[in-house]
Specification:
This protein has 136 residues and is mostly beta strands. The chain is built from no helices and ten strands. It has a four-stranded antiparallel beta sheet, with no helix packed on it. The protein has a four-stranded antiparallel beta sheet with strand order 7-5-9-10, with no helix packed on it. The chain has a two-stranded antiparallel ribbon with strand order 1-2.
């Protein structure tokens, strides 16, 4: 069998595989963050925009300790809310289309339709300061 031995660098990594066959070429890629630093108890929630297509905006939430290290074992139940001109994509039964989700690997996603207006999205979990993100 084939073996592939590679050392990943701490932080962001990008792997792209390309296979060639008689019929053409097949490609796949993955991006991930490799973390070796130990973390402490969750102290903050960080909410950021990760992508935007038209008026659909994907937001990512990260649980971090006092040193801003990602807490990979965080499993807090998080509630997303929105105020203003946008709409939260919720009640879809998916991990990025629900108003209430449980963190997985210290991370969660939600999608917003901005409606070409202004809005603010919040993410809250018991015992932690609420995170806010203003979108325009």
């Amino acid at each position: 069998g084939l073996r592939w031995i590679v050392s990943f660098g701490a932080g962001d990594n990008h792997i792209r595989a390309v296979g060639h066959a008689k019929g053409g070429q097949i490609e796949d890629e993955i991006r991930f963050q490799y973390q070796t630093v130990k973390w402490g108890p969750v102290s903050t929630l960080e909410l950021k925009e990760s992508s935007r297509e038209g008026d659909r905006i994907t937001l990512e939430l990260w649980a971090r300790d006092g040193n801003q290290v990602l807490c990979l074992d965080a499993r807090h139940r998080v509630r997303f809310e929105i105020a203003g001109d946008g709409l939260l994509q919720d009640n879809l039964g998916t991990v990025s289309g629900s108003r209430v989700v449980e963190l997985r690997n210290g991370h969660a996603k939600v999608t917003v339709s901005s409606g070409q207006g202004r809005c603010v999205v919040s993410a809250s979990a018991a015992g932690l300061p609420t995170a806010f993100l203003f979108l325009t």
